[in-house]
């Protein structure tokens, strides 16, 4: 009876060790890799969220990141746990990351040539608006003159 008990204990210990090495240890290793990946996110990285949205990291915070998405440059703030993977790592060193944030925050200034072009376009739009207003007023004036003639 003593031999059966020790055999059962050995089988139980072997079963627990097998479960640890096949299930628990690989899961912890995977979680550590994902945690390291999320903590290494830097400005300029291309990331994919768990929802499948791809974007470029614009700003990083303690537990969140701001990503820029699409041609319209829409910005999202996401928690770091929502990042699924990093598609492309930024090639820039850490010091340039801060300067990139400043660059994106500054508004673009127009040169003199661009300002002149914008003024010309504005003048053309005003002329078109005046022509449309005159065209809209012409039928009303014709109707008034027809009433007066009668």
Give an account of the 3D structure.
This protein has 150 residues and is α+β, with helices and mostly antiparallel strands. The chain has a 5-stranded antiparallel β-sheet, sandwiched between helices. The model has no long low-confidence stretch (mean pLDDT 81). The protein is 59% helix and 19% strand. The relative contact order is 0.08.
Number of strands: 5
Q: List the total number of helices.
A: 3
- Given as residue ranges, the uncertain stretches (5+ residues, pLDDT < 50) are none
Major sheet: order of its strands? 4-3-2-1-5
The helix/strand series, from N terminus to C terminus, equals HEEEEEHH
Question: What attributes does this structure have?
Answer:
150 residues, alpha+beta, five-stranded antiparallel β-sheet, 3 helices
Offer a quick outline of the entry.
This protein is an alpha+beta fold and 150 residues long. The chain has helices spanning 2-39, 94-105, 112-149; strands spanning 46-49, 54-60, 64-69, 74-79, 83-88.
List the helices and strands and how they pair.
Layout: H1 2-39, E1 46-49, E2 54-60, E3 64-69, E4 74-79, E5 83-88, H2 94-105, H3 112-149
Antiparallel strand pairs: 1-2, 1-5, 2-3, 3-4
């Amino acid at each position: 009876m003593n031999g059966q008990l020790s055999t059962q204990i050995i089988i139980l210990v072997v079963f627990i060790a097998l479960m640890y090495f096949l299930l628990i240890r690989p899961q912890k290793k995977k979680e550590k890799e994902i945690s390291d990946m999320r903590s290494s996110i830097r400005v300029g990285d291309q990331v994919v969220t768990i929802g499948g949205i791809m974007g470029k990291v614009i700003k990083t915070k303690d537990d969140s990141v701001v990503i820029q998405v699409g041609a319209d440059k829409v910005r999202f703030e996401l928690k770091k746990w929502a990042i699924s993977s990093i598609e492309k790592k930024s090639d820039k060193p850490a010091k340039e990351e801060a300067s990139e944030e400043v660059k994106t925050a500054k508004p673009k200034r127009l040169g003199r040539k661009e300002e002149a072009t914008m003024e010309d376009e504005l003048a053309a739009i005003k002329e078109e608006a005046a022509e449309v207003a005159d065209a809209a007023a012409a039928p009303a004036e014709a109707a008034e003159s027809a009433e007066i003639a009668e």
